[in-house]
Design goal:
Blueprint lengths: L1 H10 L8 E6 L2 E7 L5 H12 L6 E7 L3 E10 L1 E6 L18 E4 L13 E4 L4 H4 L8 E6 L2 H9 L3 E2 L8 E2 L5 H5 L11 E9 L31 H32 L2
Antiparallel strand pairs: 1-2, 1-11, 2-8, 3-4, 3-11, 4-5, 4-7, 6-7, 6-8, 9-10
Length: 266
């Protein structure tokens, strides 16, 4: 039984971890607190792209008013056309949290639950009524902090243009409807570029003060640990039960030992 206690204690989480990343864009910085413990596969997937520099010189390629702004799919290399970001294997869906305003979630292919790769989006509004259940829910894996939503709202306020899928809602800077009508070439200064995404903080418990509504619309939601941390309640319950059983076992052994000692003195 003591060995079982050691095993359970070794696998029970002891430290809540949350990574903070900074999106460095041409319109300002966006700080995002990731939910490492609650959505571990999604965060690990995202950070793999970050650490490999895949998002450097990438663009926000889709903006839908009062809905989302999306990126993570394409980079700009001195001239058009935009270049696809090489995709890693898709990641398992983890729809733990709700798609409310100010969260970041993974984009997926329609009708394919576990199809998220490199692309992500920021929720501009409370999209829980749609995105928490559609396609088995979209995985929210972080939350914008500080003044980041001011930058995202400024991006969302830019005019967007239809250059054909997947650039049918691409936001552009200093580019007018007249430019679009006259087929003016889109250049670097028009794109909403992300110069880099960097890991700015890996301290524990950085999600403690965040408001993280659970996804209650999908059966897959609400089954994991809380936020960027928080232990697994089931494991701790098992650990507590085993501790009580172990204490009871030791008490019984001590009681039997006392009986034997009494008998030996007769």
């Amino acid at each position: 039984m003591f060995a079982a206690l050691i095993l359970i204690a070794s696998i029970a989480p002891t430290t809540s971890k949350a990574t903070v990343v900074t999106f460095q864009t041409v319109m300002g910085d966006i700080e995002v607190n990731l939910y490492d413990n609650a959505t571990p596969q999604t965060v690990a997937n995202f950070l793999a792209y970050v650490n490999n520099g895949d998002y450097s010189a990438s663009v926000f390629h889709r903006s839908v008013s009062n809905f989302i702004v999306q990126g993570g799919g394409f980079t700009f290399d001195l001239a058009l056309p935009l270049i696809d970001i090489p995709e890693r294997p898709s990641v398992t869906n983890e729809p733990e949290f709700s798609n409310v305003r100010g969260t970041i979630a993974m984009a997926k292919l329609g009708g394919q639950v576990n199809s998220a790769t490199s692309q992500w989006f920021f929720n501009l509004a409370n999209n829980s009524g749609n995105l928490d259940s559609q396609n088995s829910g979209f995985t929210v894996f972080g939350q914008v902090t500080g003044a980041g939503m001011d930058v995202i709202d400024a991006i969302a306020a830019l005019p967007s243009y239809d250059f054909g899928s997947p650039f049918d809602n691409i936001p552009l800077r200093d580019y007018s409807a007249a430019d679009f009508g006259n087929d003016v070439l889109v250049e670097e200064e028009h794109l909403v570029l992300i110069t880099a995404i960097i890991v700015s903080n890996t301290n524990a418990d950085t999600t403690a003060g965040l408001n993280m509504p659970r996804n209650t619309a999908n059966s897959g939601g609400g089954s994991g640990g809380g936020g960027g941390g928080g232990g697994n309640i089931t494991l701790w319950a098992v650990l507590l039960l085993l501790t009580l059983l172990f204490a009871r076992h030791m008490a019984n052994r001590l009681s039997r030992s006392r009986v034997r000692n009494t008998d030996s003195r007769r």
